């Protein structure tokens, strides 16, 4: 895969912002840390507009919620929304399995995210365990992700392919962002193309399973 092609593809839609902000003054960031990696490429005002138009506009956000609900119906798995006003993407997950114990539990989720910055999406399975602490006035919740699956493999194959098919049908011409982009740092620091388009919720110490180059055929 030619990573430069991905950046050029983004630049076609946001040429001014990309060129003006690529080597901008990083110290001027005023938004949440969640947006730092995106603001390198896009102006603060432009990012705010993207989030307002897609999240705070009730009619636009309702379209994603309806799509989320359709995925739940088609896959027979409950779906939960995780879209935040600090990330330039829609974010949701199908709960594939949730096993509860006295100390907490273990779960498997299939995440799917649609970027506001362009017609791009990502999809991956996540295996986690969580712990609950009821010793204080309020219940404390701790979660640890121990592995992620970035292709239709392991326990995620059927639902992965089904959700991917629905996303491609809903958003014509959309391209998947192969997870290998998470390991490709941009010119500023350690931020990746994945961080730029979605969020910083993935970490480098998680075990990665499956084909991290899945989806590269979109970029040939």
**Helix count from the secondary structure assignment:** 7
Shape: globular
Report the portion of residues in β strands: 25-35%
Series of secondary-structure elements, N-terminal to C-terminal: HHHHHEEEEEHEHE
The overall strand count is 7
* Biggest β-sheet strands, sense, barrel: 7 strands, mixed
What percentage of residues falls in helices of 4 or more residues?
25-40%
Counting helices, strands and paired strands, the structural category is alpha/beta
- The mean pLDDT is 78
In total, the number of domains comes to 1
Rg (CA only): 18 Å
| CA(first)-CA(last) distance | 7 Å
Unreliable segments of 5+ consecutive residues: 13-37
What does this structure look like?
By secondary structure, the protein is of the alpha/beta class. Strands 1, 2, 3, 4, 5, 6 and 7 form a 7-stranded mixed β-sheet that branches. The chain has one domain. The protein has helices at residues 3-13, 15-21, 36-39, 44-56, 58-75, 157-170, 193-197; strands at 79-81, 89-101, 104-115, 120-133, 140-149, 175-176, 207-209. The protein has 7 helices and 7 strands; from the N terminus they run H-H-H-H-H-E-E-E-E-E-H-E-H-E.
